[in-house]
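== Sequence and structure of one protein ==
=== Format: two labelled lines per protein ===
==== Data for this protein ====
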Amino acid sequence: MEDYSSLRKEKIRLRRELSAEERIRRSDIITDKVVATEEYKNASTVLVYADYNGEVATDRLICRALLDGKKVYAPVCEPDFKLSFYRIFTVDELMISTYGIREPLKIEYLKLDTAKTDDDCVCITPGSVFDRDGHRLGYGKGYYDRFFSETDISHRIGICFDFQMVDHITPNDNDIAMTRVISD
């Protein structure tokens, strides 16, 4: 298995160096591309992260999905390195967690029933590096790979800035590829 830690750090550094205006401009382009996909158009449920650490900004995408009448869920990072998704009705419901990431409140009746995810569910997925085959590097803890291995999410869309794309990432046995990667 290759060590991608320096590549991951480099891409995260480049992300952080974007000005706020440039990050939003590029994020808006990505949002427009996401909402134009058939996966998004046909989805009744959208799982989407709240951006952190210079990631592609997602507030506009979350608002758009809500306005489009979709059920929107945001992730919570659990102590056992698993993700749980909770339904949100506005961006303002996201609160800063102990990790410094905006997360929804853990209200049990709003928790996603992963047994009911199917073809009308799309997961918008962050990453530090993506390749043309949909492989990704996150932060190295495996949260999304664990989630995808335990659920049946057909549409996994990775989003990133162009400079986060590389020709090839050698996946390990636990990595689950994206079905599509969208950049600016």
Observations:
- DSSP finds five helices and eleven strands in the chain.
- The mean pLDDT is 94.
- The CA atoms of residues 12 and 170 lie 19 Å apart.
- The first strand starts at residue 45 and ends at 48.
